[in-house]
Amino acid sequence: MRILVTGAAGFIGFHLVQRLLDRGDEVVGFDNLNAYYDITLKEARLARLDGRPGFVFVRGDLSDRVAVGRLFSDNSFDRVVHLAAQAGVRYSLTNPHAYVESNLAGFLNILEGCRHSNTPHLVYASSSSVYGANSSMPFSVHQNVDHPVSFYAATKKSNELMAHAYSHMYKLPVTGLRFFTVYGPWGRPDMALFLFTRAIIEGSPIEIFNEGHLRRDFTFIDDIVEGVMRVTDRIATSNQSWNSGSPDPGTSSAPYRLYNIGNNQPVELLRFIEILEEKLERKASRKLLPMQPGDVLATFADVSDLVRDFDFKPTTPIETGISRFVDWYREYYQV
Fold first, then answer.
1. CA 71 to CA 80: how far, in whole Å?
2. Is 292 helix (H, G, I), strand (E, B) or coil?
3. pLDDT for residue 291
4. Are 137 and 171 in contact (CB under 8 A)?
């Protein structure tokens, strides 16, 4: 297939493009290489893709309506996997407009491109952050998610609503994927595993919010990519038994679906740090801090729909995933 992957220089996008190319797909990668985190890491990812048969990279910004329109007019895509977004919960506290430009205006441009080019299937990244103030665990796509606790989460919830509107109005098949705390080699420098690893190696203190009493459903990158590929291959369909009198948030009478992709095994942050210390063979200097605005106490993915529809469930143990990240980090940074 010929597949558009937005955010191709990003963490998940890079790994996904590699897998798609490995199986023989043609991929057009789209990314603006913004400076939210180290651009050289993004460039290093792209360098590993550059020159591979079937890969073409286009540099552009999601919020540029003309550039996105040209991307769709110049190409015919069998699938669109939309991973590009302004990420980060805490960054949204100080730079909310970046989220409007990328996550709202940018997503609208993608929807319009798919609509006018009759794209057979759009798959887009949502986030576990949409569960917000929900405390009923594990989190299910069949729960309402109407109480976001960060602006980032609000934009991701908005993406799901926008996608449903386009699916309903234009019969555009769309699938949203709620990712749960993705980690692994080539990961984002603003994420806990990267920050902690760097600090421990350098002998700096690590900042531990809510004194470490947070639980996250850490999900290894290979599991995320496998889930994305399986979902992308199967075009979303409507739920023929959907009932407007008792509406199911995870499906629709339109060709619209939502799935969680998470490890289904939450790990307390303190245990996460202990495993990292074991792999690095060093102890961390710990700076315990209170709960931060926009944070939630725990995330826990119900992946029963993913198992039922795609016969897939993430399985990588946290010990294996952290070990593979540490090996990559030592090699990449030569430490």
1. 12
2. coil
3. 87
4. no
Q: Which amino acid is at 195?
A: L
pLDDT value at 292 more than 90: no
CB atoms within 10 A of CB 111: 24
The encoded tokens of residue 231 equal 């979902």
Task: Give the amino acid at 235.
Answer: I
d(CA 13, CA 32): 13
User: The tokens 């008792």 sit on which residue?
Assistant: 246
The H or E element spanning position 165 is helix 151-170
pLDDT band at 211 (very low <50, low <70, confident <90, very high): confident
101-137 per-position pLDDT tens digit: 999 999 999 999 999 999 999 999 999 999 998 989 9
- Residue 267 main-chain phi, psi, to 5 deg: -125, 135
Lookup: tokens for 60: 């552009």
- Looking at residue 25, its amino acid is D
- Residues annotated as part of the active site: 152
Contact 255, 273 (CB under 8 A): no
Alpha-carbon distance of 151 to 100, in angstroms, equals 10
Distances (CA, A) of 135 to 90, 132, 138, 149, 296: 21, 8, 9, 12, 9
Please report which helix (H) or strand (E) contains residue 267, including its range: strand 267-268
Largest Cα separation within the chain, whole Å, is 59
Indicate the residue type of 279. K
